[in-house]
Amino acid sequence: MAGDGRRRRRLPLSLRRNAVAWERQRPTWRDAKPALIAGALKRAQARPSGNWYVVGASRDLGGDRPLGRTVAGQEVVVWRDADGRTVAGPGVCPHLGAPLRDSPVRCGTLVCHWHGLSLNGGPFAGWEPFPAHDDGVLVWVRLDAVGGEEPLDAPVVPRRPVPARALTAVYAGTGVCEPEDVVANRLDPWHGAWFHPYSFVDLTVVDTPEGAGEDAFAVDVSFKVAGRLVVPVRAVFTAPEPRTVVMHITEGEGVGSVVETHATPLGPDASGRPRTAVIEAVVAASDRRGFALARAAAPLLRPLVRTASARLWRDDLAYAERRWALRSTGRFPGA
Q1: Running DSSP on this structure, what letter comes out for residue 137?
Q2: What are 239-258's pLDDT values in tens digits?
Q3: Which of 109, 86, 111, 108 is nearest to 100 (CA)?
Q4: pTM (2 decimals)?
């Protein structure tokens, strides 16, 4: 670890020694106490969000189409106006109900493709905007009627590296579950090396939350690169608001880098089951001289980062969906 007083390695990779087979690693089920995970989840759910919801990546804005998302059954559209500001509002045209997500943006104005009603982001013809926020990586919309909390002027954005000096990538996926199932997955770090052996090895939870202070899980873990080559780090997981879990790298390679997992409720599917969007932002930073080359190659690297996230979330959404299926039928054994 970088924080243990030893000189940092010239290369970020380590050779894993005394590797054990997957089935011979130390079981973690006794440590992963259901009451501990449930307590962390309950405290996260009690933190204020100010009714802000992540709806997509900042890079998704700026084209000739708005970003469309359904949040808790409410259609939302987001785009940039003529001055480049992020604007948002209902996705249903107030005239005859056209889906505005399918309408084009022309010179910062959203033009309904049914009858030409034009929206520049201000109140017009019964259409009222929603507060919107672009933090440079993600786009948020405030929906007071959905959240029902005391509104906040801005969302609770986790601390992260400056995007201009970082490599950023955003993954989005959808699962049949509720946001709490996604958050609970992230507040269970013990499953990493068992459930994702292709990515994580030698995982040890070194600190657990006590309901005070940062309320964090600290984990020593190695990210697999190839064969026995790994990148060992210390990662700290926190939940700054009800629908967000953040992993900060605090020691080892890439100190300061974050992975933000945001869960946005979408509304029921055709069978009445809840659907949740997972929008995960990777904001990677490093003070190594070679990292400037990585930033320069960001257009090539972002798809690779998204592919890695998608592989993890293929499994973790199955975890979240299973948790919801058990909860919804009274069979979930957790506290």
Answers
A1: S
A2: 999 999 999 999 998 999 99
A3: 111
A4: 0.93
